[in-house]
């Protein structure tokens, strides 16, 4: 069975000379990241497993240390690398009302029985997740992923029900 991978961050640069790296990640994911034992980086189309020996957080980024990477030169080989976990690992940490981005992209968006668009992307503005919804006029609008607006997500039937507030999708 082929693993699907989900990105969880990026190795930004080295930190010191002991093989540590500055690690960029989505805000408010510290608890999830702290529980990880291993991650993967893609090199030449292959996913290489790296075991985490230490991870701490600063106000701006994480500082991560991998087993067997003990020098500045060792970690420089990974500078700029996207860091992944398996999809299964990511799913194990999802809360009841959380979804993987690739599950949401492509879903049709409805207001009542009327189709009003489709999800083309997901982003985060620091306060909340935002659905990028292409409306029927082909304009992309940002929809806050909050319970007052996103009423339900039905992955199986590929639809999202929203409360289309006036001006939201125009």
Spell the H/E element sequence: EEHEEEHEHHEEEEEE
Gyration radius from CA atoms, angstroms: 19 Å
Main-sheet strand order equals 1-2-5-4-3-6
Average pLDDT, all residues: 88
Alpha plus pi helix count: 4
Strand content: over 45%
Q: What would you call the quaternary organization?
A: single chain
End-to-end C-alpha gap: 43 Å
Structural notes for this entry:
This protein is mainly beta and 170 residues long. The chain is built from four helices and twelve strands. The chain has helices at 30-34, 72-76, 87-92, 101-104, and strands at 5-15, 20-24, 38-43, 46-57, 62-66, 82-86, 108-111, 114-124, 129-135, 140-144, 150-154, 159-162. It has a six-stranded antiparallel β-barrel. A six-stranded mixed beta sheet has the order 10-9-8-7-12-11, with no helix packed on it. A hairpin with a 2-residue loop joins strand 7 and strand 8. The longest helix has 6 residues, at 87-92. The protein starts with a strand and ends in an 8-residue tail after the last strand.
């Amino acid at each position: 069975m082929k693993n699907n991978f989900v990105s969880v961050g990026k190795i930004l640069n080295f930190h010191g000379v002991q093989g540590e790296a500055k690690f960029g990640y989505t805000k408010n994911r510290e608890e999830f990241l702290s529980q990880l034992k291993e991650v993967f980086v893609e090199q030449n189309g292959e996913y290489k497993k790296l075991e985490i020996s230490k991870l701490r957080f600063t106000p701006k980024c994480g500082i991560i240390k991998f087993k067997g990477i003990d020098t500045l030169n060792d970690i420089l080989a990974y500078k700029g690398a996207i860091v992944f976990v398996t999809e299964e690992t990511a799913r194990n940490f999802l809360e009841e009302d959380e979804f993987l981005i690739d599950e949401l992209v492509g879903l049709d968006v409805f207001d009542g029985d009327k189709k009003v668009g489709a999800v083309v992307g997901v982003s985060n503005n620091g306060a909340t997740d935002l659905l990028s919804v292409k409306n029927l006029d082909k304009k992309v609008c940002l929809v806050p992923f909050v319970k007052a607006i996103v009423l339900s997500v039905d992955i199986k039937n590929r639809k999202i029900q929203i409360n289309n507030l006036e001006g939201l999708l125009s």
